[in-house]
Amino acid sequence: MVLRDSWLCAHWAWQSTRRCLVVLALLLLHTSDLEGRKSHPFVWKTGHWGRCIGDCGSGGVQSRVVWCVHSEGWTTHHSNCEQSDRPESQRSCFKICDWHLELFEWEVSEWHLCVLVPFALGEVRPRTSACVTAQHGLQHRKVQCIQKLNRTVVANEICEYFTPQPPMEQACLIPCPRDCVVSEFSSWSVCGRHCGKSLQHRTRSVIAPPLYGGAKCPNLTESRVCDVWMSCPHGEEEYTYSLKVGPWSKCRMPHLKEMNMIGRTMLDFGSESTERSTFKLQVVENFQNFHRSRSHYSSKPWDIEIGYQTRQVRCTRSDGKNAMLRYSWRTSEWKGCDVTLLLEQQDPRHHKHSALCGGGVQVREVYCAQITLEETHKLKEVARPVEKKLCLAPAPPASQLCNIPCPPECLVSSWLGWGPCIHENCQDNQGKKGFKMRQRHIIVEPMGTSGNCPHLIESIPCENPVCYKWIISEGVCLPYNGICGQGNRVQHAVCKNYKGEDVSGDLCADSPSPSKTITCEVPCGMDCVVTEWSQWSSCSHSCTSKNAEGRQSRTRSILALPGEGGKSCPPNHALEEYHTCNEHACNQIYWETSTWSPCSENILVTALNATINWNGVPTCGVGMQTRKVFCVKNNSGQVPAKRCPESTRPDTVRPCLLPCKKDCVVTPFSEWTHCPTTCQRGNAPAMKQSRYRIIIHDAVNGGQECPDTLFEERECEDIPLCAVYSWKIHKWSWCMLVPDSVRQGVLGVNEACGHGLQSRVVTCVLESNHSVDVSECLKWAEPMPSLVQDCLIPCKDDCTFTPWSKFSACASDCESTRSRRRTLTGRSRKRDKCQNTEVYPLVEAEPCPCTIFTSRPHGNWSECIISIGKTELQLEQRFHGHAKECGEGVRFRALACYDKTGRLVEPSHCNHSGYVEQPCMVPCPFDCKLSDWSSWAPCSSSCGTGVKIRSKWLKEKPYNGGRPCPKLDPKNQVYEAVPCYSECNQYSWIAEPWSPCEINSELNSLHCGEGIQTRKIRCINTTEDGSGESVANMLCNQSEIPLERQKCTLYCPSECVVSEWGRWSQCPKPCDPNIMQTRTRHVLRSPLNPKTCPDGSQMRPCVLNQNCFQFHYNLTDWSTCQLNENATCGQGIRNRLLSCVRSDGKVVAMTYCEQLNLETPAQMVVDCLVECVVSCQFSEWSAWSECSHTCGLAGQMLRTRYIILQAQGEGRPCPTELTQYRSCVVKPCYSWVIGEWSPCKVKGGQCGDGFQVRDLTCMIHDGSLSATSKQAESSLCGELPSKDGALQLPCSVPCPGDCHLTEWSEWSSCELTCIDGRSFETMGRQSRSRTFIIQSFENQDSCPEQELETRPCSGGKCYNYVWKTSLWRDNERTVWCQRSDGVNVTGGCSIQMQPATTRHCSPACRKPFSYCTQSGTCGCERGYTEIMRSNGFLDYCMKIPGLEDKKGDVKTNAAKNKPVNSKMHDIFKGWSIQPFNPDGKLKIWVYGVSAGGFLMIVSLIFTSYLVCKKPKQQQHAPPQPKCLTLAYDGDVDM
Hints:
Distance between the termini: 145 Å
Number of helices: 11
Helix content: under 10%
């Protein structure tokens, strides 16, 4: 039973177990199936997309093949792959067509920076050692296909369909890596004052930043511990820095987060600059709706809230920036030259403006104009005038000297004689009217044109004119019987013209020739004999008038008396003949001309004006000038033109240069002057504003005239009328304390008391108490009362008081005081500490204001000031002496007003204007005054050249610094002498006929023979003005005075009678004494005995200066510079005169030289310049300037004047006083005096951020440095300065051991990146840096990082960096890097090229007793010699034996280099044999000598061997000696 039960139990257990196993097996099979699927997956594979087919544009379709693949690579049915993961086999695409070319394009960006080529591992190797000038790099850019219409990015395949894709990278060059370049270290700073261990530092700055992978900048600061502990003065900073603050931001309300940022420094991300900005909590007034327009009568009280503002604060250096000059001086054209500006006021020529000439002054307007950037290359454009003070450069001159050419003076000769009566035109001999003419010639040609010369031809009408006439000459009378009595004489006729020239006989009237034979008579022996008729004398008058008639006479005289039966002599009246001459009237006629008209256009030459040039100079054309010609009768005026000869009529038309038209040019109007911005009272006169413009040049030659309006004025518009505004003040609000949310962080008892702020409402009201906008009071009322003030809510332990009462009344005297009181309130009355009146005073007293004032003069008297009426005069008026500079004036002295305490007060308290005046006198300078020039004296010579003189004499001497006198003679006169010329026929001798020959009858009864005859002579003026009048005999040539008495012969009957001697024949030119001169006479009556007649001819040699003369021109010296009578200075002329001189020195008529056709000098007149005597011309005094100080004793006003024209010549010099000063009214100075800053106070700590405070007090003083200031009422000092800016400043107390940054270094010079000396870029770089100062080495890990800033710059330079070395010293030297401008730097030079700083022997000197020499080779110590190898290296050092007692070691390098002091050595040093070179090696000749010696020794040994040869024996070879190399230096010990 038990077994059965057991089996049943087992069976049931087995069945249950089997079922579980089956289920488990099924689960395992399913799991294995799943695992099988995972281990053998099926995946989808896709082919490439096919071409886009379909319509153009976005409607295309692309297809691809999709299949299922086993992971082993064989294809299976699609169902084996997951259907949800099946890829798409089709997709929409963009079908590209040809017309899409206009819709798409490649967009290419700029190339990026060039970067080095990456290597396999992606690193960038700097390759500093391999880089020479530049490295290869790559530049990338972005390339994408875009749609042109909306610039959207599309697939690149669209653009690639048309054009290949542009490259996205290219090769480029990168300059070699440049390391950071820094300057040399500065000197070490002074050690700190505090005791104990202190540090000193030195810094350097960055000159060039690292570029292109160069090494970073090294540390810019070094610190070291001070060796000496001592107190040193704090050094001044190298640069001066100013605090530059930006504008305050809008007032913001404080929040809890912002309260935590008080005092922190943060970056202001709202500004463009990276400068630091400080956020500072402060109390400000938030003027809401400040700029809103409000109704004048609807203003609300302001709501006051407490907030804070921020502003940007930066530190700037004091080098500043250069301002660009935008204003320049401009000038008008010079005005016309005005001579009167140089004439004295009393000169009578002031009103002869048309006739004045010579030196003068011309003026122009000088004005300041604004120049825009576009006008800098168009300076000729007319710019608008502005205020002169805007032009900073010196103004150009407004005046200069000029010259008006004087009309040329013409010197003419006297009139020649009248010519014959001839036809006006001898070619047409019609009519019976003719003219007699006379001429004169120009002696001194005028400069320029001869238009100012008088007429040179005069004519008079005459009857029966003859151009040609017969000139008859008679031959010798031949008697019929050959002895005497009747006979014949031949009469010859020659036809000559009016000039005396022979012409054809056909031209003469009464043709044929009147030549014929006429009867004559020769006296016989007993006949009376008379002479031939003399020549007709000159006509007594040049013309015939009612009172004078021209007459001529001729005479003959009796030579022999008749004998018996002979013909008697004619009566006395028959011995003289008279006839009239110059029968024409004295009214000569001549042509007179007017001045030439202005040049005007002419229709005939208009067509030529396009291409015409005048003397090679292109002009505006050629025009015509005309003038009128009048026929003028002497002493009668104009007569009809037909009465003057037409042949001498002057021209009436001539060509001329047509002047160009020039329009008037004026500047634009200046800006309107400013209207007053302040309001005006209702009864004030209307305010005006004005503007002006300046004439640059006037219109000329018919150009457009200048406008009439040069100055405009108008009344100011919209000037507000002054209204009376005032501030209405409301009560103060409750005292506001810091909010509890902020106060929670404050240690201590949380009590609602302490200091706070309280505000009040301030409104603006009119006189009628109507409220208006606050801005009105801000403009027109007093300064706005404070809206916020400090307040105090007393704590429970504080003492409280009532407000101070008003001050008590003062007594009348100045010794009393006044007081005010207050009392304790509340619990304070019971507290003991509040009862202490020394700490909490209840009464305040002060002296009463004193009403006694005294005046004291201050300073020196001012200069004597001449009062002036007008402050501005025209520039032309200033030259005429209108600017008063001497005479009565006033001088001033300042009066200061003081109260009884000696405090300076307003001058109105002393009832005076602040000045004391005193009359004064400025002496006027008086110049040297001379008289006018006298008239010219007559020429010193009556014939030819001479001298004429005129003079001036002294009228007034100079004094008070007037212009000095010229050099005067003892008679106080000054002379001027010029050459002159007189016509030689101006005065001539006139001799009356000889009287009959008187025979002394007492001695001679026959009344014949020798006798005496006399005549009268006189000197007459032969000029036209003289009219033949007798003058003093001294005016005629005394060497040519005729004889008044001479011997004569009255032939007796039957004597031979001969005529007077004829003229001597002409001598040759030049004179020849071998040639004879002859003269003849003929027999008038034959004697009874022919042999008794005297000789009929005489001969004499032609002897120079006796009867033969030569002639030449003589030139005078140049005259002094002569001015026109209407000129005082300027352009003049110098002339010289020409005369004809005979070889014996006698001046003769010019005709003698003219007949010889001698060459005359070409230039007789030259230009010259007489310097103008210009006294200094200066402007009027300007108006007094504003006072240099608004208060105090040092204030001065000044006025100035400027030099218009500097003095020239002997003019009065310019005054040295161009500025005058006078003291200002002495007024007291009120100023806020700020006390010294307190030490930096840190609340709640010992270091860190804190504040400095100082006091502000209103003081009164006199403005001088030595003045003692006294306290005054605060109301006198006006508006308080800002408390935050003036009385409290943030500061910092460094904690011990803290690091702090230095100031920024200076910007380095602008440096360019260059390759081979050429700039690689257009912009350079500048760098600056700042480093940190270590105060404790223990805290150096907490120091801030050093900072570097770089900025671009222009105008940089290329710099080179080279290694520099010092000289070797003990195998060491200094090596440093230097920039090409001489600045020593660290960095910049190639490390691989750095020279060695120490010198080593290679290989090293390890042999015993060896060392490295200066030359870098191994040598031996003293007492050892070098044993060298064949390669030149040291093998070993060998001791030299027996050298201890030697003077020098000759075996060692030390001995070689050891100096020898022996005099003998110095003597033989130059020529003694030296086996060693300076480098210690043997010379070549030593080897040659050694080789030769060796050969000689060998030969000697060989010879000895042959001579002394013995039988051969066995001998041991001796040991071979060691080679010993010795060095010989010439010492005798060797």
